[in-house]
Specification:
The protein has helices at residues 7-10, 20-38, 41-59, 65-90. The protein contains 4 helices and no strands. It is elongated, with a radius of gyration of 16 Å.
């Protein structure tokens, strides 16, 4: 049903010009998809938030490749920190 809705109808639904219903649905679908892949809530939250934030940047014409790579690098660094922190606690 979401596919058949005109984007101009939901453009100003919660905040003017933000397409917020779309991004809420996008975040939810990415969250559940990444959770089904990783089986980890925090990892799924971070990856879905990063991808949704990149799409918001694309909406405002600031979503360049460099910004995507920087966001991805930030998330990968956070993942590495969590991994090494868990490894240090186990030993």
């Amino acid at each position: 049903m979401v596919v058949f809705v005109d984007p101009m109808v939901v453009r100003d639904a919660l905040f003017p010009g933000s397409y917020s219903p779309f991004f809420i649905l996008l975040w939810g679908s990415l969250f559940f998809f990444t959770y089904s892949l990783t089986l980890n809530y925090s990892r799924s939250f971070v990856w879905s938030a990063m991808l949704t934030f990149y799409m918001v940047l694309r909406l405002f014409d600031m979503g360049y490749l460099v910004n995507g790579l920087l966001l991805g690098g930030l998330v990968i660094a956070l993942e590495a920190y969590w991994y090494w922190k868990d490894e240090a606690q186990e030993s």
